[in-house]
Amino acid sequence: MPSPTARARHQYTYEEYLAYERESALKHEYDDGEIFAMAGGSVRHNALASRMSAVLEAARRSGCVALQSDQRLRILATGRTTYPDASVVCGPIERDPADPSGTTITNPVLLVEVLSPSTEKEDRGKKWDDCQQIPTLQEYVLVDQFSPRVERYRRLAGGTWEYSVATEGRISLSTGAVIDIEWLYADLPD
Fold this sequence. Notes:
Blueprint: H1 14-23, E1 28-31, E2 34-37, H2 43-58, E3 64-68, E4 72-74, E5 81-82, E6 86-90, E7 104-105, E8 110-114, H3 120-124, H4 126-131, E9 139-143, E10 150-155, E11 161-166, E12 170-172, E13 178-180, H5 181-185
Parallel strand pairs: 4-7, 8-9
Antiparallel strand pairs: 1-2, 3-6, 4-5, 6-8, 9-10, 10-11, 12-13
């Protein structure tokens, strides 16, 4: 199979994407028939993602599992396949029925994306639009890489989304995790 580029011209099937992903040493996202190589994150990005994973794991409730950025997620309603920086699943893990390896999940309750200059537009745009189609998703959290800022979209009972932002203090998540903004951004590498 030919190597996909950052903006592939060929329309791949999901099955072709999964086959390519099994053979690749790198991670790729899949959206609308295209395969996109994921760029490696900066040291600062990785530190923030690691701290977010630690917060989610420390607050993990019984029956929930916190997952890091190697966990592939498929949004069944749109077909987008991605690797969030961190996620939480509560209850039985639902696996993508179209992935014979059983390594792709479909039912997160919380997703975290650390914003990068190359991904911010997508994380706030089409990816966010797609993520809203996940029936189990309760929160979508965006972490700014360069200044203390954590944004949260929380699904309300009627299905609409509430937006909030914290630049100081603490922000509480539905999973029980509490993000201390000062701690999250303290002593980050450049």
